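Researcher: Let's walk through a ligand-bound prediction step by step. First, I give you the protein sequence. Second, the SMILES string for nicotinamide-adenine-dinucleotide. Third, you return the three-dimensional complex as structure tokens. Ready?
Model: Ready.
Researcher: Here are steps one and two:
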Amino acid sequence: METLEGRTAVVTGGASGMGRAFADRFARAGMRVVVADIEDGPRDAAVADIRATGAEAIGVRCDVARAEDHEAVLAAAVDAFGAVNVVCLNAGVGGANGPSWQLSVDDWSWTLGVNLWGVIHGIRTFVPHLLTHGDGHVVTTASIAGHTSSPWGAPYNVSKHGVATLSETLFHELKRSGTAGIGVTCLCPGFVATNILSSDRNRPGGRPERSAPADGEGGRDSGTGRFIDVVKRMIENGKPAPEVADLVHDAVLTDQFWLFTDEVWDEPIARRHAEIAQRLPPTVPAPRRP
Ligand SMILES: NC(=O)c1ccc[n+]([C@@H]2O[C@H](COP(=O)([O-])OP(=O)(O)OC[C@H]3O[C@@H](n4cnc5c(N)ncnc54)[C@H](O)[C@@H]3O)[C@@H](O)[C@H]2O)c1
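Model: Step three, the predicted complex:
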């Protein structure tokens, strides 16, 4: 897109973390913003803060795991602002951790429902709308976990690999449909300092009783426990979300497809591709300084 001024952005998961930063950044760029989120208080606060800057914003309650909620967001956005141009399919949860075989059906359904179906529903709802006016951009939030397969986070890894391939597929389809005006960006963040560590605040039915790692040993010394501790530290010291928002803003304007937030994962991702090409068994991915 050549300019964002006067256009409308929808941001799912726009009440916290990266989504909140995207909403703020787009508002500063002169966009009207629709904050779509399941959490009422932070969503209302985001809208009030954006309006206080003089920008236009509305909030819509939305559970991205429900197709009909996306339809409601689109209807509210069109009603308020006439059309949608930029759609950030960003809402996501960290999901449950543990060996794949020990995670419950509910653990899997929750993570895949929000992280993967949330993007599928979003594409099914918003892309036909973008095609009606031909001036738009879809930003999906995948993850480094869409390019690697760390142990003890299978639902998250599966969801993010799904988002990455869905985004790539969408890119090819739009290019071949003769609609040059619709761009796609697949955002693949490394660690970013957000509220993702408390994702189960939004889990249907509340936080599950099991809080200890479910890997057969239990406790912080288990494989899952050590993994959670490392991830927690990395996220707490992660990149500030506003820096990621600047990258997203620029990617929409320059029509950049793959968007990574740092280089420390380049080597593990390249190594994975080399292992596949050479038919070698996978090694555990770990961030490396270039
Ligand atoms: N923080 C990281 O290090 C990191 C790294 C890679 C990818 N990501 C991805 O970034 C995206 C944003 O997460 P974040 O890190 O900003 O976390 P966050 O918890 O700060 O924000 C997530 C937002 O999604 C909302 N949400 C959760 N479930 C929802 C649902 N069912 N329907 C609608 N909204 C819902 C939450 O209310 C919250 O506002 C997610 O897709 C996440 O997987 C995060």
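Researcher: And what stands out?
Model: The mean pLDDT is 93. The chain has one domain: 8-277.
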